[in-house]
């Protein structure tokens, strides 16, 4: 089926690649629904909140009539779509009523939006892509030129892998204790509790009416926001649940106590996703915590229905709700400006506004502590904060920074760690390289060229204010500070977005810049499946030269952590010195790294031997289900064996089949050979920030703006110069 043509009107003109069309909707997807669902299926495996039944009902009940369906075909002829509406003069935004929770922007990449401004009426200067779930959005990037992102909410989810019993045993003790206490209260009061599941279309209206009565008796009823049969919310949820129930994709869970409705949850689901849309409970039965008891039963049922799937809450999670979750992530608002100058003007306008307005106090007891490497002694709670960040990247953990400080010296800078706490609880940490001189003008995050990823270390649910207090402390400690740099960052990670927003909130003007491409492989299946997916020439080389190496007395070894560790380090050093690479500027760093990785169970040190001599060596890292290729080298005298290729294949088999990783990451660079092994590419960016309140900072800011304007004009001139003409 041609996805690009599916469900489009015969009256719609033929679409050209990369040319956006703006179509009126009249409060419905109508004839575009089939194409919409095909696009959703292709990009996001049919996300339930992007389903035409959900989005169509949103338009029907909450549309204002000015919504536009934006669509284009990409270079591959695939349709890309989103819903926009005018918000104010010069500003458009995605269709995002409060019932939406997230909004669909169904494009393959942020670059697909390059010409969308040309299809909008009026003088569009910015588009706000509201409610972007970073797991199901390809437009989130807070660092690229013309882009700005802000955190909206922190949602939670439950991975339904394994069994419910395993999940429940991993919950905090207090949560399990409280659920037992509520169940005991029911038993002691001789209260009969019944769980009811409603899943037929004809019963949905009555179920929503009962649900609405619970909300009407709560604070929502007092504020007029309750779901009621005769209001828009009631009609919306009735229609959504009825439409989904027709295909077996909707359930209303009800907990009845003594023949009275105690709690209700509205759910839509398919074979991989389970979404709780709404929840309410009877406040007169609060002593039994019926909402929690029902949630316990709903989660247990989700494990039975879609094992290996995901349960999504899509809520701004409280601390109590985090106890139920296995994962959390940030929903962001992503703004794209028509050009880079507008984003700079917007920053300066906000800076002027902040200068004229006193910050609102949050009445929390805030504190920032400073620690210096290498004689650092972090409190246990801070170490736990770093351990949590280490799940994202091995070079965000405290062992990494300790080894870096002990083995690498950065002239003119002192490694320092700032920790921001609220009411005595650490919420943010920022490892920094501060200038040795009190009058130093520049500082940066504690990273070197050994670093594959840097970011602030944040607690789940951290806010901009948590990091801003550290930025303010930096200026107090270094009064002349005028320039800050942080790299390499993941531009779509909430920590990077919070960092940029915190810098701006503290009065700094920020710019994003490209660092390097990052190639990686999402693992699907076993090593043999992966191997067969490689090009025939590569497969033949590995088979042929692998046999030759073994026949000539060679061997391939993977050292994890054993008495072979020091032999492995010696082998790596021997190979590195015989390779084409320049000598390590800090000789102690790599041995320290290898020992640290071995001590934490993350080392995979591969060595190719020939006649007892190492001819290739590679350092890989296995960290929380992902593998990374950190250092590689081979002896050029033995290039005829392609020992680097053989060793990479051997390690790839090891991490896929033995370690069971979900991803292999080549870390740094766009080297062509990395594309031979990997299938996907992402980017790492940096932030440079200037303090316009210092003369040096203002001068550097002016230079930055000037350089970017000149570059933009040069690119525009080149793009308009005919091929072969003399510019």
TrEMBL record:
It comes from the Bacteria. InterPro entries: Acyl_CoA_acyltransferase (IPR016181), BioF2-like_GNAT_dom (IPR038740). It holds the Pfam family Acetyltransf_6. Residues 175-305, 537-675 form the BioF2-like acetyltransferase domain. This is GNAT family N-acetyltransferase. It comes from Dechloromonas hankyongensis.
């Amino acid at each position: 089926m041609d996805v690009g043509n599916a469900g489009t009107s015969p009256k719609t003109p033929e679409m050209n690649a990369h040319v956006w069309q703006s179509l009126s909707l009249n409060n419905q997807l109508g004839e575009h629904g089939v194409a919409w669902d095909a696009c959703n299926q292709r990009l996001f495996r049919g996300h339930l909140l992007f389903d035409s039944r959900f989005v169509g009902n949103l338009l029907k009940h909450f549309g204002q009539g000015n919504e536009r369906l934006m669509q284009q075909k990409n270079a591959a002829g695939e349709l890309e779509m989103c819903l926009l509406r005018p918000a104010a003069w010069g500003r458009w935004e995605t269709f995002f009523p409060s019932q939406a929770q997230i909004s669909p922007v169904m494009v393959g990449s942020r670059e697909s939006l390059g010409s969308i401004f040309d299809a909008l009426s009026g003088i569009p200067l910015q588009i706000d892509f509201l409610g972007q779930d970073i797991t199901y959005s390809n437009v989130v990037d807070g660092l690229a030129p013309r882009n700005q992102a802000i955190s909206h909410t922190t949602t939670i989810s439950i991975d339904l892998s394994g069994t419910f019993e395993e999940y429940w045993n991993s919950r905090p003790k207090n949560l399990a204790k409280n659920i037992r206490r509520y169940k005991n209260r029911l038993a002691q009061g001789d209260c009969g509790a019944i769980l009811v599941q409603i899943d037929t279309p004809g019963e949905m209206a009555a179920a929503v009416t009962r649900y609405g009565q619970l909300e009407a008796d709560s604070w929502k009823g007092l504020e007029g926001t309750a779901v009621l049969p005769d209001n828009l919310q009631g009609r919306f949820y009735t229609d959504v649940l009825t439409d989904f129930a027709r295909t077996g994709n909707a359930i209303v869970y009800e907990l009845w106590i003594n023949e009275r409705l105690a709690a209700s949850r509205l759910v839509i689901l398919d074979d991989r996703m389970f979404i709780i849309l709404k929840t309410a409970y009877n406040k007169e039965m609060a002593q039994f915590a019926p909402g929690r008891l029902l949630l316990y039963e709903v989660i247990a049922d989700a494990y039975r229905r879609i094992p290996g799937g995901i349960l999504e809450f899509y809520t701004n999670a409280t601390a109590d709700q985090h106890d139920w979750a296995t994962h959390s992530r940030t929903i962001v608002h992503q703004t794209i400006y028509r050009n880079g100058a507008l984003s700079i003007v917007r920053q300066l306008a906000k800076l002027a506004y902040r200068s004229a307005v006193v910050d609102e106090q949050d009445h929390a007891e805030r504190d920032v502590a400073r620690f210096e490497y290498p004689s650092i002694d972090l409190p246990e709670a801070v170490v736990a904060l770093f351990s949590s960040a280490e799940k994202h990247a091995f070079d965000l953990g405290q062992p990494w920074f300790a080894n870096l400080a002990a083995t690498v010296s950065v002239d003119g800078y002192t490694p320092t760690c700032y920790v921001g706490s609220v009411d005595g609880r650490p919420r943010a940490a920022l490892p920094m390289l501060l200038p040795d001189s009190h009058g130093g003008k520049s500082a940066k995050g504690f990273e070197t060229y050994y670093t594959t990823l840097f970011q602030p270390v944040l607690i789940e649910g951290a806010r901009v204010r948590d990091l801003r207090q550290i930025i303010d402390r930096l200026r107090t400690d270094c009064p002349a500070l005028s320039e800050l740099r942080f790299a390499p960052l993941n531009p779509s990670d909430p920590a990077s977005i919070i960092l940029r927003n915190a810098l701006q909130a503290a009065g700094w003007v920020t710019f994003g810049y490209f660092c390097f491409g990052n190639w990686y492989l999402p693992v699907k299946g076993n090593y043999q499946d992966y191997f067969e997916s490689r090009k025939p020439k590569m497969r033949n080389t590995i088979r042929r030269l692998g046999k030759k190496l073994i026949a000539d007395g060679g061997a391939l070894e993977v050292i994890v952590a054993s008495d072979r560790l020091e032999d492995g380090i010696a082998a790596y050093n021997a190979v590195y010195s015989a390779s084409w690479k320049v000598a390590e500027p800090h000789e102690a760093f790599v041995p320290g790294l290898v020992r640290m990785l071995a001590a934490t169970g993350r080392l995979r040190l591969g060595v190719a031997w020939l006649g007892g001599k190492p001819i290739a060596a590679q350092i890989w890292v296995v960290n929380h289900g992902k593998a990374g290729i950190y250092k590689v080298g081979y002896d050029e005298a033995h290039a005829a064996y392609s020992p680097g290729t053989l060793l990479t294949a051997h390690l790839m088999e090891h991490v896929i089949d033995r370690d069971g990783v979900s991803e292999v990451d080549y870390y740094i660079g766009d080297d062509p050979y990395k594309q031979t092994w990997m299938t996907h590419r992402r980017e790492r960016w940096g932030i440079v920030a200037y303090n316009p309140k210092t003369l040096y900072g203002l001068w550097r800011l002016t230079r930055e703006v000037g350089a970017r304007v000149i570059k933009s004009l040069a690119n525009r001139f080149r793009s308009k110069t005919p091929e072969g003409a003399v510019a």
